[in-house]
Amino acid sequence: MNVQGWKDLAKCRGLDTNIFMPDDSGVIYKEQMERAVAICASCLVIDECRDYAIAEEIVVGIYGGLSERGRAAFARGNKGEVRELWNVKHGTLSAYQRHRCRCAPCAEAGRDHWRKNQEKRKAKKEVA
Question: What predicted TM-score, i.e. pTM, was given to this entire model?
Fold first, then answer.
């Protein structure tokens, strides 16, 4: 099937594409991802969409139900490794550090961790 052929069958055809793209700060929030993935999950051409994004090396947004990180893992053949950011608990240091999520709650968790470490370093210097 050619590119235009499968795009005509896409479930997202005619929808606001902002659902599938990050905001101006480069973040796709959990609720937005869940909504995008739900649309993709019921799409007849999800595989064609994913394969198109991988072939075209598209690095922004949700295509074929996967984010850029999910598509990269899929393309490497690590289908079991396809862990998406919407599967992690947001607002945690783990999401910020291990999963590199930069949504507002995760970024705040990262800043809190940094502040606490700064306070510890400062307290150690004062004691010495």
Answer: 0.61
